[in-house]
Amino acid sequence: MTDNLTGSDRGKYAASKAALEFIKPGMKVGLGTGSTAAWFVQLLAGKVNSEGLDIVGVPTSSRTRDLAASLGIKLTTLEDAGWLDVTVDGADEFDANLNLIKGGGGALLQEKIVASASNQMVVISDGSKQVDTLGAFPLPIEVVKFGWRSTESTVEEVLEGADVANRRISLREENGAPYVTDEGHYILDLHLNRIGDPRGLAEALNRIPGVVETGLFVLMADTVLVGYEDGNVHTYDRDRGDLGRHKVHMPSKDSLYVPGA
Ligand code: 5RP
Could you confirm whether 203 is annotated as catalytic? Predict the structure, then answer.
C-alpha cells in the first residue's frame, strides 16, 4: 500500500501534519472530504488513539464520516455541535486571495455549510492546487434535480455576462448515471478556464433558483497550508499574508498508510 506514494501524496501528508498544530484538546473539528482531507483524518485519528487527544469531529460527507468512524474518531452532527472551532479541508484550486474552488469530490454543499459554521477554515493542499487565477479546474455547482435542465439554461445565460474564458457545462456522472450528492442533488461542472471575478460569479450563480450552492469559496479560507514532498509546508494567512515555510517530520515511506478518500 505504501509503494505507490507520489510526491503529491507526500505533499498532502505534510500539509495535513502541519494542520494538526491547529487542533487543541476539547475542540469541535470540521472534517473535510477528499484525498487530502483523508490524510488529515488519518493523522488526527493517530493523535486521538495514541495521545488521547479529546476532540469531536463533524464530517462533511458520508465518505469522511465512514473513514473517521472506522479510525476511532468521536463524531457528532453539525446540528448537535452548533458551532465549530476549526474546519480542515482540501481544495481543488486556491488563488493569492485564498479564494477556492472546491467540490471535485462532490461534497461542496456540506463542506461550505460546515466551514461557514467554524471559527476558522484551514485548507490543506499539495503544490499543484496553487493558481494565479481560478478556473482551470471545472467549477462544480450543486443543483436540485427538479428542472435541472432549466437551471442549466439559466446558468448558461449568467455565464454569457460573466468574466470567464469558456462556457461549457457538463452534468457530472458516475457509472453512466448522474452523480447524486449526499443531499440528493446533481452537480453541474462549469468548464470556464478562467474566472475573472470569483465573488461576482458566485453571487450571480447563487441567485438562480435551482442552484443550491457553488464550489467557489470566496474569503472563507483563513489559512492555506501547502505541503511539499520534502516535508516543507508553506503557510498563507488571509490576514497576515505569506508566512513562509517550515518543515514537518516525514516518516519513512514504509510507515505511511494511504487512506481511502
Ligand atoms: C471535495 C473537495 C475536495 O476538498 C477537493 O476536491 C480536493 O480533493 P483532493 O484532496 O482529493 O485533491 O472539495 O468536495
Answer: no
What is the grid cell recorded at 42?
A: 488519518
**Looking at the domain that runs over 139-214, which CATH code has it been given?**
3.30.70.260
- Written as one letter, the residue type at 33 is T
Residues with CB under 6 A from ligand 1: 32-37, 89-92, 102-108, 111, 261
For residue 14, list its beta bridge partners: none
- Specify the residue with its C-alpha closest to ligand 1, atom 1: 105
- Residue closest by Cα to atom 10 of ligand 1: 36
Q: Nearest C-alpha to atom 5 of ligand 1 is from which residue?
A: 91
Q: What is the pLDDT of residues 24-69, one digit of tens each?
A: 999 999 999 999 999 999 999 999 999 999 999 999 999 999 999 9
The pairing of strands 100-101 and 86-89 is unpaired
Residue 56 buriedness (CB in 10 A; 0-12 / 13-18 / 19+): middle
Pick the CATH number of 2-129+219-256 from 3.30.420.10, 3.40.50.1360, 3.40.50.1370, 3.50.50.60: 3.40.50.1360
Contacts of 6 (CB under 8 A, 6+ apart): none
Please identify, by atom number, the ligand 1 atom nearest to the C-alpha of residue 89.
4
Q: What is the domain partition of the chain in residue ranges?
A: 2-129+219-256, 139-214
Distance 108 CA to ligand 1 centre (A): 9
Helix axes 62-70, 35-51, angle to 10 degrees: 30
pTM for the full model? 0.95
